[in-house]
């Protein structure tokens, strides 16, 4: 084994690979912390999936490089033992290689000046093994940025320039900058596997907490309608939590991934999927919950992929749209049974919160003669400069 010792070297008890995290005692962890940083061993073909899973758990250590081990395994640096990612072993890296962790540091070593660094990207997203980065217009050398990002993210295979999202089908506009040209990947998040090609379908890392929350709020055996299912952003965690989901999605590419992901996550029997306009599909029964994870075309057109604010964008309110999310409220209310929950998403100028989404929802509910009994508003992320992606959880009698 290269530069590693297993935590078992001193006869500490460890279980099978499935049980690794729970069998690592505080005693072992104390000793590991003293003797060297932790890494986990995974079979080489699982490297990318394992890195994403470890990253999602928040235990992947970007400060150290991955290293080959024996028996076709790869050592992945972690800050503490994972609890969700399946690993073959836990080891100490005796002489780890430390990575330069900051993009500016890497570029600086290549001779970038302070002025150049002002025009380097400030944030980027990692989706599976694909890095998506918005290149500032005055960036001195996008190829150098892309190579540096590949260097920073050991598990990444490709870097794409993120140039926005187009139209109702939310098609990403991307440009290949570095690495492999095949950009199909699997993004793992809290145990949910999202297969996708980020050059063909959108994925919003900033919505991670909301995707996880949907899996948490749903009850086993609930009937759910996900009106804008995409590749299964919310459908998959909800189905994995035991709900039966009717999922509608217009974009045929996103729909293909939705079907694939339903099978890959073992929930195909709980997902009734339609490659159709949500206005044309009525679930067989009134549902307990409706998810409206779409806020319309013109707001969507400027949706940055990454989770941070994009300060280059205007703080103007999005133009009025032919397919604004709130125009779908009557369809959602039609499907929702009395006492059911509606999750209504809206991209809203910060200065019009909390009133605008609340009043749009209130009017739509009033138009049906029903009653809004409980509304809670949350901030999902910053959509763009001055615009917030908000979600309202509403109970409707
Ligand atoms: C914004 S994406 C989903 C975003 C996802 N909820 C998230 O938070 O990351 C919205 C999806 O709705 C789909 N869509 C737009 N209008 C639709 C409609 N009328 N019926 C069904 N799907 C629609 C688009 O193709 C797109 O995949």
**What name does CATH use for the topology of the largest domain?**
Rossmann fold
Mean pLDDT: 84
Give the spatial strand order of the biggest sheet: 14-13-12-15-16-18-17
Structural class: alpha/beta
Return the CATH class of the largest domain: Alpha Beta
CATH superfamily of the largest domain: Vaccinia Virus protein VP39
Number of strands: 18
Q: Helicity range of the residues?
A: 25-40%
Which ligands, by name, code or SMILES, are bound? Answer: S-adenosylmethionine
Shape: globular
Q: Low-confidence runs (pLDDT<50, min 5 residues)? A: 1-33, 299-322
Q: Largest sheet, described in full?
A: 7 strands, mixed
**Secondary structure tally, helices:** 12
Strand content: 25-35%
Q: Report the CATH architecture of the largest domain.
A: 3-Layer(aba) Sandwich
SSE arrangement, N to C = EHHEHEEEHHEEHEEEEHEHEHEEHHEHEE
C-alpha end-to-end distance: 63 Å
């Amino acid at each position: 084994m290269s530069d590693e010792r297993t935590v078992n070297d001193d006869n500490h008890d460890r279980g099978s690979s499935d049980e690794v995290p729970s069998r690592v005692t505080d005693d072992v962890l104390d000793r590991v912390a003293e003797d060297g940083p932790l890494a986990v061993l995974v079979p080489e073909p699982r490297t990318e999936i394992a890195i994403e899973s470890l990253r999602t758990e928040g235990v992947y250590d970007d400060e150290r490089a991955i290293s080959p081990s024996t028996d076709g395994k790869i050592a992945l640096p972690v800050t503490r033992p994972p609890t969700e990612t399946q690993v073959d072993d836990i080891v100490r890296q005796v002489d780890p290689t430390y990575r330069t962790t900051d993009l500016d540091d890497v570029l600086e070593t290549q001779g970038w000046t302070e002025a150049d660094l002002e025009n380097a990207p400030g944030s980027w997203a990692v989706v599976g093994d694909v890095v998506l980065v918005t290149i500032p217009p005055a960036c001195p050398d996008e190829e150098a940025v892309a190579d540096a990002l590949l260097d920073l993210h050991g598990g990444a295979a490709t870097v794409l320039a993120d140039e926005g999202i187009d139209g109702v089908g939310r098609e990403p506009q991307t440009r290949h900058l570095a690495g492999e040209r095949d950009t199909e990947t699997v993004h793992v998040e809290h145990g949910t596997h999202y297969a996708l090609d980020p050059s063909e379908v959108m994925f919003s890392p900033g919505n991670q907490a909301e995707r996880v929350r949907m899996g948490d709020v749903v009850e086993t055996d609930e009937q759910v309608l996900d009106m804008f299912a995409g590749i299964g952003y919310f459908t998959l965690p909800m189905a994995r939590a035991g709900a039966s989901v009717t999922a509608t999605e217009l974009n045929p590419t996103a729909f293909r991934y939705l079907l694939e992901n339903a099978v890959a996550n073992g929930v195909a029997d709980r997902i009734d999927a339609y490659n159709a306009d949500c206005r044309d599909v009525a679930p067989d029964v009134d549902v307990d919950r409706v998810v409206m994870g779409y806020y319309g075309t013109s707001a969507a057109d400027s949706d940055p992929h990454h989770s941070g604010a994009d300060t280059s964008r205007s703080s103007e309110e999005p133009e009025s749209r032919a397919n604004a999310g709130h125009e779908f409220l009557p369809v959602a209310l039609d499907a929702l049974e009395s006492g059911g929950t509606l999750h209504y998403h809206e991209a809203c100028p910060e200065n019009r919160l909390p009133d605008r989404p609340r009043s749009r929802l209130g009017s739509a509910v009033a138009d049906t003669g029903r009653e809004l009994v409980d509304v809670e508003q949350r901030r999902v992320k910053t959509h763009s400069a001055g615009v917030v992606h908000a979600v309202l959880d509403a109970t409707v009698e």
